[in-house]
Amino acid sequence: MSFKSAYLSDLMERVEKRNPGEPEFHQAVREVLESLEPVIEAHPEYVEAGIIESIVEPERIIKFRVPWVDDNGKVQVNRGFRVQFNSAIGPYKGGLRFHPSVYEGIIKFLGFEQVFKNSLTGLPIGGGKGGSDFDPKGKSDAEVMRFCQSFMTELSKHIGADTDVPAGDIGVGGREIGYLFGQYKRLRNEFTGVLTGKGLSYGGSLARTEATGYGLCYFTKEMLKDAGTSFEGKTVVVSGSGNVAIYATEKATELGGKVVALSDSNGYIYDKDGVDLKAVKQLKEVERKRIKEYVKDHPNAEYHEGCSGIWTIKCDIALPCATQNEINEESAKALVQNGVMAVAEGANMPSTPEAIAVFQNAGILFGPAKAANAGGVATSALEMSQNSMRYSWTFEEVDAKLHDIMVNIYHNCATAAKTYHMDGNLVAGANIAGFLKVADAMKWHGVV
Ligand code: NDP
Ligand code: 2IT
To answer: Quick check: do 60-190 and 211-372 share a fold?
Structure first.
């Protein structure tokens, strides 16, 4: 899509020139700027105050060497990043991703989206993201620990409970957060809520592990309810088999859906009777094995190599929970042809712009990532609150707050879309509602 506004068109061009070789960042910025078209028409003051230009430029990018020694005594060198994107409404907040595909452009797209997502939660958190091209796959616990200690030795100079609070993302779960926290505490001689997703024995919040997947289903439930339907009796396809996918599967099943497929970066399983989640948890959370191992003990299930085939399975609801751009135009068309009625994004930016257009043109309910997967970071913010109070809420208390936050996010996005005459367009609704709160705060702060 081209822009109607010459200002936005110009700005997009500048973003592309200034951030060369970062297609994921361009994609994320373009989508938001497209949504903002009617907003700047109604509120030229945001343009006059330079807010739009500022919001696409990270406040700070930290890039560093991460040397560590592997089990063979060989020195390995990775690259670490932290992008502190926007702190207008609170300390920078967002996950760390450890995956070989990580480079500055990935962290920038994630940090940029985090700004709007965090705003949508209604909680006081700014946006940031970090990570490394380190691949935890196939590494021993000792190697992961040494890597995390080296990574934190540098990162600790730039973060703090009131400055920047990282958490998990792809390749960073409870094990990594533990090692990172231990090193921060040692270096600073401080026990603070500097990270979220911590273990329950040292300041973690109940329900944080489940929060992104559960929140995704609470959001989807509300979107379905608004359309007069529910998860009850629906066939669901979930991609990925990590933290988000596992707990989305758990909640979708609890709400009456039948999850028939899961995947990893090698392939997908199809179990027409509904996946055996206990077995998946054992494989993925405990043994750290590949999803194809599932079919060994489940003879009725099939395993197929390759990721994209999962979108050819007939389903009512699709929940992409693996990675960016995992649903392209062709996969979106296959889903639509097979009668999908709702798609909600657990992963960050899993649908390409062409795929989103296919869903929207077909009138399918579409819950964009910034809104639909905000439950993880929202619960991280609840972890920060509990750490500040030196107190902890019960699982039920946290889960009830998460539920209400997701229901509110859905309605705020739907209302914003309606206000700007894009009824039902939750992509625009999420971008606009997320933007307005941050932009307003930035305006009050002056040129900073
Ligand atoms: P995990 O590391 O726990 O799991 C990631 C899953 O996605 C694995 O099954 C992995 O397969 C698969 N995957 C990763 N990269 C690729 C790739 N390039 N191609 C195909 N499959 C891939 O991560 P999470 O579950 O935490 O994260 C999943 C998504 O959800 C990400 O987009 C993340 O940004 C997003 N998210 C996470 C939140 C959280 O709280 N954890 C919050 C909000 C969003 P394999 O094992 O083969 O690599
Ligand atoms: O993408 C995300 O929102 C996350 N990975 C969670 C970030 C967090 O700070 O909990």
So the answer is: yes
pLDDT digits (tens, 9 = 90+) for 309-322: 999 999 999 999 99
Q: Does residue 260 register a pLDDT over 70?
A: yes
Integer CA distances (angstroms), 385 to 94, 201, 205, 381, 391, in order = 16, 17, 10, 6, 9
Distance CA 133, CA 79 (A): 6
Contact, 317 vs 345, CB < 8 A? no
Kindly state if the Cβ of 93 falls inside 6 Å of ligand 2. Answer: yes
Atom of ligand 2 nearest to the CA of 118: 3
- Helix H or strand E encompassing 36: helix 23-42
Query: How high is the pLDDT of residue 1?
Result: 62
Q: Around 193, how many Cα atoms within 13 Å sit in the side-chain half-sphere?
A: 22
User: Ligand 2: distance of its center to the CA of 112 in Å?
Assistant: 12
| CATH class of the domain defined by 211-372 | alpha beta
169 pocket-lining for ligand 2 (C-beta < 6 Å): yes
pLDDT, position 47: 97
> Ligand 1: residues whose CB is within 6 Å?
99, 101, 168-171, 173, 212, 240-245, 264-266, 307, 321-323, 346-348, 373, 376
| Residue 40 token pair | 């700047």
Domain boundaries in the chain?
6-54, 60-190, 211-372
188 residue type, one letter? R
Atom of ligand 1 nearest to the CA of 208: 40
Structure tokens at 103: 């480079």
Sign of the alpha-carbon torsion through 9, 14, 17, 23: negative
Residue 302 binned pLDDT confidence (cut-offs 50, 70, 90): very high
Active site residue 258: no
What's the pTM?
0.98
Which ligand lies nearest the alpha carbon of 98? 1
Q: Average the pLDDT over 15-22 and give the result.
A: 98
Give me the pLDDT at residue 2, please: 81
pLDDT (average), residues 72-89: 98
What's the CATH fold of domain 60-190?
Answer: Rossmann fold (3.40.50)
Smallest-distance ligand from the CA of 129: 2
Catalytic member of 93, 108, 117, 129: 129
Q: Nearest 10 degrees: CA dihedral of 234, 236, 242, 246? A: 20
